[in-house]
Amino acid sequence: MNISITFRQMDPSDAIKQYATDKVAKLQRFLRRPLTAHLTVSLDRRKHVVEARISSGSEHLEAHEVSDDMYASIDQVMDKLERQIRGSKGTARARRRDGDSLKEVAEDVAVAKAGAKPAAAPKRSAKTSGKPKPRATKKR
């Protein structure tokens, strides 16, 4: 795990550095590969800005937050990154499931929770195969 923190337009603080490092380290439990994180902490007209870029294997995530409190900005950025990680894991799992789309997987889960069987698609007979009927032509 490699974490770098850059301070812009403000003095570096060990407390902020330690807080941000602890928060980023908690994100490692959601990822399979070691992460590399770059945090930029800055002060812009009394607004505290935090930008984060995280790379883990082939995943690259970014988040940006502005607030009146530096610790609140760090918390909000970490929440955004956690949501992105969880969302990407859900997408990856759904793709691995026999090629089902996310919508189909969500419908199956909802049906399973309700305790009912999923509705089968209507079957077409040979007469109605989905092909348009030929037009009747007039004979002269």
How is this structure best described in words?
By secondary structure, the chain is of the alpha+beta class. It has one domain: Ribosome hibernation promotion factor-like (Double Stranded RNA Binding Domain). 39% of the residues lie in helices and 25% in strands. It is built from three helices and four strands, in the order E-H-E-E-E-H-H. It has helices spanning 14-27, 70-96, 102-114, and strands at 2-8, 36-44, 47-56, 59-67. A four-stranded mixed sheet has the order 1-2-3-4, with helices on one face.
Tags for this entry?
39% helix, 4 strands, alpha+beta, 3 helices, four-stranded mixed beta sheet, Double Stranded RNA Binding Domain, 140 residues, 25% strand, single chain
In short:
The protein is of the alpha+beta class and 140 residues long. 39% of the residues lie in helices and 25% in strands. A hairpin with a 2-residue loop joins strand 3 (47-56) and strand 4.
